[in-house]
Amino acid sequence: MSEEPHIFDEAGDNDTLGGRLWRAREAVGLSEAALAKALGIRPETLRAWESDRSEPRANRLVTIAGLLNVSPTWLLHGVGGAPQGETLAEEIGIVRTQLERIRQWRQQTDGAIASIEKALDRIAQRTGI
Fold it and tell me: What is the tens place of the pLDDT at every residue in 2-23?
């Protein structure tokens, strides 16, 4: 008696929940604002989910999966119904966009660090510390 194939026998998508959520949103062409509005959440909440700083509750995952035309199992574990039509070229474009976002965050962080360092220097000069 042979065992039936199981969904978890598939090679999984090794991205994170946030990465898969971002890729699925991009694949259907929804903006952050549009998906956030459809879910009744703030765009900041969606950004936190997509950057893996927080996760949606289980009941929201089913709604998200329906809106993005993927399976909840794919969002959670990277197996099952993935975004349709995601070609290698599209995936490369998505990853390049992610990289650009990280570069922008790094520039913002570098600017904030420089500003804090200047403020510390000014305080140190005033107080003689």
Answer: 566 544 455 567 789 999 999 8
**What is the DSSP code (8-state) at residue 81?**
S
Neighbours of 48 (CB within 10 A): 16
Which stretches within 1-129 are classed as H helix?
Answer: 17-28, 32-39, 43-50, 58-68, 72-77, 88-127
Q: Are residues 18 and 50 in the same domain?
A: yes
- Tell me, yes or no, whether 35 and 75 share the same domain: yes
Is 78 domain-assigned? yes
What is the rounded distance in angstroms from the CA atom of residue 57 to the CA atom of residue 36? 14
Q: How far apart are CA 79 and CA 60, in angstroms?
A: 18
pTM: 0.59
The whole-number average pLDDT for the span 33-37 is: 95
